[in-house]
Amino acid sequence: MADVGEDELLAMVFPILTAAGESGDVTVGPGDDAAVLAVGGGGLVATTDAVVHGRDWRDEWSTGEDVGAKVAAQNLADVAAMGARPVALLVTLVMAPSTELDWVLDLARGLATVAASAACPVVGGDLSSAPEGVLTVSVTAFGTLDGRRAVLRSGAEVGDVVAVAGSLGLSGAGLRLLSDGRAEADPEAVAVHRRPTPPLALGPVAADAGATSMIDLSDGLLRDASRVAAASGVCVDLSSAALAGDVGRLEPVLGVEAARECVLGGGEEHSLLASFPARAGVPGGFRVIGTVRAGQGVAVDGIPEQPRGWDHFGG
User: Fold this and answer.
1) By CB neighbour count within 10 A (0-12 exposed, 13-18 middle, 19+ buried), where does 62 fall?
2) N- to C-terminal Cα distance for the chain?
3) Residue 39: which pLDDT band, with cuts at 50, 70 and 90?
4) What distance lies between CA 170 and its chain's CA centroid?
């Protein structure tokens, strides 16, 4: 799997899963931030994500509340990236019998806090035991499009502007500081890494403003922008001048090169990256950081960049 990588694996698996046939109830299938089902009159959005102890969090860095808040937020960000409003969560917890009860209750509190802030209740889920050392939390999120059209990764057009809602690089910087034992150097960045707060309300706002594409920045700006570029058949060209403030924010604690790398490749930010027709402008809460041009892949100031960032199997 380390030789294949996440995107390559999905390209192999999706044809197998879809070979069983199609359903008229599915309007958006695998390959975007979430699926869309034609039920309920307004379009039902569904997505799921999991976190694994020792891989997605370490106990010395994150509490149970942090984990609960984070896994809820990352799922809700996928719903928002489709232009939808979150409506419900399902939670699955797989754990060894030796797992501390207090940790599980803290996890529930973190989930409940984020669910309440999004007006998106937890409506059920599953519990399962596991061998020693195994602890996994999975959340499935549902949303409604409220009658609007889903915003996909595949709609960016040449001439569009590229804009972001939310921070860039803070979560990646927080991870670096935790790894280096320097959490006190930038408490805000560490807090964003532990408990990201996606701009959920701006997903539907972007859709209503005519966003042509949108994605949740879960795996890094370059990698996720490259996914939009690949799905849309375009080049996403980012502006270093527009990103200078994000780099400058982190430079005092990381240095300029590490700060730039966090902005371009740092994952788990869960901000929203969207494209809009240039003539329409961007809605409040978004800022322009690039353009869509002819070509393919992702670039900075016209210079092609490798789509680096987090990959579950390639690192």
Assistant:
1) buried
2) 11
3) confident
4) 14
- Type of residue at 299: A
What percent of the chain is helix, strand and coil (3-state, nearest 5)? 35, 25, 40
Output the CA–CA distances (angstroms, integers) from residue 210 to 25, 80, 279, in the order listed: 25, 15, 11
Q: pLDDT at residue 102 above 70?
A: yes
CA distance 291 to 226: 13
The half-sphere exposure of 89 on its side-chain side, counting CA atoms within 13 A, is 31
Q: In this predicted model, what pLDDT tens digit does every residue of 297-313 receive, in sequence order?
A: 999 999 999 987 555 54
Residue owning tokens 């915003």: 151
Domains and CATH numbers, the chain: 6-144 (3.30.1330.10), 153-305 (3.90.650.10)
Q: pTM of the prediction? A: 0.89
Strand partners, 202: none
Q: Determine how β-strand 213-216 pairs with β-strand 122-129.
A: unpaired
List, in order, residues 6 or more apart from 157 with CB less than 8 Å away. 212, 232, 234, 275, 277, 292
